Amino acid sequence: MQQRLVECVPNISEGRRNEVIEAVSAVVNQVEGVKLLDVDPGKSTNRTVITFVGPPETIGEAAFQLIKKAAELIDMRQHRGEHPRMGATDVCPFVPVSGVSMEECVDIARTLAKRVGDELGIPGYLYEAAALTKERQNLATCRKGQYEGLAKLETPQGKPDFGPASWNEQTQRSGATAIGARDFLIAYNINLNTTSSRRANAIAFDIRESGRVKREGGPGSPILKDANGEPLRQAGSLKAVKGIGWYIEEYGIAQLSLNLTNIRTTPVHIAFDEACARAHDRGIRVTGSELVGLLPLRVLTEAADYFLKKQERSLGISDAEKVKIAVKSLGLDDLAPFDPSKRVIEYVITDANKSPLLDMTLLAFAEETASESPAPGGGSVAAYASTMGVALATMVANLSAHKRGWDERWAAFSKVAERGVQLQAQLAALVDADTAAFNQIMEAYGLPKATDNQQKVRHQAIQDATRHAIEIPLQVARLSMQAMEVASEMASIGNPNSITDAGVGAMAIRTGVKGAILNARVNLADLEDVDFAKRVRVECEELWSASDAAEAAVIARVDEVLGS
């Protein structure tokens, strides 16, 4: 299942005192679900960029604690540095990484801003997507005058969006903060088979949004200007792209150095293909590219989808396979190996112990199931049966997508395969979730019960854990019936050479449905919520009958194709 992740990149006005930098950044990891990714101090700028990620539910709390700690340890009256700044925490943007919308990041930013103003007494401005006015979307506008000009807080033009509109001893110490929401910024270099930085620059000018200045004639001729004396510009081909060309002595080649400031407007794969086309126009070839720093998984999976569509190949494959396709298509391993485990945010933060069953080999999973331990048991095996069943149905969809003579149908089969892959991931996640639910019940029974209050706490914990242990297999059964639809569709219209795979898939899925139902029912006896238990029993009966009917229809189709 897709992780819901937000990145936060606060910049604090301290880059020289390690003890302060460490104390400020350390508070991040104290918030549940949040992980510190990078701390990048700069001595000359006297500024540190801190990067962390977490779920939308807790990322705002981590940012608040960081801003609070920075205000405690940094006195802006003593600060000097080369970078523009106006506060102890100068900027604090939120960036959607995966499973989170920009609107959610805006809500996080505005909620944090109110809390920073109310609880910490720090004034500031909302910028980028979180801005309340068009003028303040631009960070430079919010920060105009920097710290030394913050007397503007008491003026109508400079009144803050949050916090006190006063320039007093407290605000003089903390300065002001800009809190915002923006899209992910990607630093992206494209490798050329030339050593000419001038030709690389020309390609960059062709591409970047600002383009190049217009001239009366060829290079070196006078620049054309408008009525105000400003240079006229010929726009480049891509929006939200900045760029120059340069020569990299380490590699002995020229590169396009691009900043993609909004990857929804211009994603990496579009920039790459446009660079290939413009380089070709100038007799130059792109040999590969390099992505700088950490990036969201979607950058690579969207690139893979783009290239797969151009090849008319199914998109219904795993993320791991898509990453491989993106790396090769973009030439990310042209200059150095590209290791997704160290470069993709979702992979970097993955807990190695998060999926102990799924991470096992098939043999190890079987041996663990056969051991004396009651978990994993039927619930986890049921979830895995459905996972394998929909995997088989997805395979039929992918085989059908590139069957000879069916070229015009590839997109339709690709959509089925994509749905199958999504269900496969959801069901696989429930393999470990079922065992975790059983363990939660055992932990509840192990709580102390010496006093009346402890007995009440223990009793409620048992009831909550029992309900959870019912809901997990119910999710398995519901998702399995959606998976059965994939198997049914592929048995009906998929590649007839793979009809038995669709049949085996349907049988495995039916086992998953019924196994999950049994595990939901076995826990109902201990649940005191009678109404909930009644609804569960009715739903279980319906799912049981539906799985029988669906599997029977698939097997009838298998018999028809095989000629029983």
Can you give a write-up of this model?
The protein has 3 domains: 5-181, Formiminotransferase, N-terminal subdomain (Formiminotransferase-cyclodeaminase, Chain B, domain 1, 2-Layer Sandwich), CATH 3.30.990.10; 186-348, Alpha-Beta Plaits; 362-562, Up-down Bundle (Four Helix Bundle (Hemerythrin (Met), subunit A)), CATH 1.20.120.680. The model has no long low-confidence stretch (mean pLDDT 93). Strands 1, 2, 3, 4, 5, 6 and 7 form a 7-stranded mixed sheet that branches. It has 17 helices and 13 strands. A hairpin with a 4-residue loop joins strand 11 (241-248) and strand 12. Helix 1 runs antiparallel to helix 2 (59-73) and helix 13 packs parallel to helix 15. It has helices at 18-26, 59-73, 102-120, 139-142, 169-174, 197-207, 268-281, 297-310, 319-330, 340-343, 345-348, 362-370, 378-401, 410-445, 452-493, 499-524, 530-562, and strands at 5-8, 11-12, 35-42, 47-54, 89-98, 124-128, 177-181, 186-192, 212-213, 233-234, 241-248, 253-260, 286-292. It starts with a strand and ends with a helix. The chain is 50% helix and 13% strand. By secondary structure, the protein is α+β, with helices and mostly antiparallel strands.
